[in-house]
Amino acid sequence: MTAKLNLQSVIFLDMVAFPDCEKRLALNRSEHSKDRRLERAFCSLDHLDSLFPRTLFSPQVELCSTFPLSPRMTSISRRALLLVPRALLSRLMHLYDYPHPSQRGRIIRGYDRSHAVRTARMCVAVATALGHGAERLCQYQIACLLHDLGRAGLDRQLFGKIWSWAKEHGVPTRPREWRAIHPETTYGRETEAFLRCYRKDLEADGIAMTPWAKEQVEMRLGYSRRLARRLRTVRPAIRKMGVTWAPWMQQVMLYYYYPEKLASAKPWVRQLAEILVACEQFEAYSNQRRGRDYYVRKKETLVDAFAYLEKLRQEGMLSGAVMGALRRLTAQGEFDAILEEARGCAFTQGERRALRAMES
Predict the structure, then answer these.
(1) How much is the pLDDT for 342?
(2) How far apart are CA 49 and CA 70, in angstroms?
(3) Burial class of 316 by CB neighbour count within 10 A (0 to 12, 13 to 18, 19+)
(4) pLDDT score, position 289
(5) Of 230, 267, 235, 234, which is closest to residue 252 (Cα–Cα)?
(6) Mean pLDDT, the chain, integer
(7) For the purposes of burial, counting CB atoms within 10 Å of the CB of 13, is it exposed (0-12), middle (13-18) or buried (19 or more)?
(8) pTM of the complete model
């Protein structure tokens, strides 16, 4: 007999099962406070896994949308959601852990995993608004959760030194930008070209280009092959989790750095890829830690975030439909808590007014 788990129940399960995966900010809005009290009431249940033993990826589980919603549940369901069970989320996040190259037995914990979780929640909200079905959304959210897998092993200090230097010297940081300036570069060999051009300059500035340092370069300019290597390593573990990995999931993960790889993709795959880029960049431009470590940024502003997204739209990376859905959900307040958590502080009243006017 097929068990039915309606989508609103999944939403409710997200509220129940993930109270500790992200620390939300204590805001003074009454609706948020009420929801937090409701969450805490359910957080006391320590037998959730026994209540919900099957994952959304089991053939025995079927999604439907007939469950009647109370006003309270309607409020909860409007949030950007996690559709994966807590245990699966934890196992997926551990895929970001990476053995230290020179210290045997030491594991480099995955960098900024909360960024991946926040991005994945936003992506589901936008994809749902654009009409993508629940079954597809489950696989899509897993791809979004793992979108930074090619950067497993990121060394915050060394990575920051290399790419701070690159920014100061006007060196492109994405493969397509590199090829635009250096068209003679063989496709897929941007990392090697970077090292040929700048190794001596980097070492003169005290940044030794060791094999580990080269990997930090590859995390940006050679992202496709590093992601492919990492996926080959972890795919057996992914299978053991009961997750079916489809080729389109890797395509979606590569779109930001390699839009040309989706030139012949189905329209729905391209749209999901655009959503990931839009949400990931929106979160990243609001992310205090990532801004400091990754983008060499001292302050997060909504103006900068949407200016960059608009630039991507003008370049053809983002469609009007995706941008429209993102703006609409932002104006409705769907992402307020996520973005405030990313930046580490609450929005000012002025920022909140700007967000509410985003759709116009």
Answers:
(1) 86
(2) 25
(3) exposed
(4) 62
(5) 267
(6) 79
(7) buried
(8) 0.77
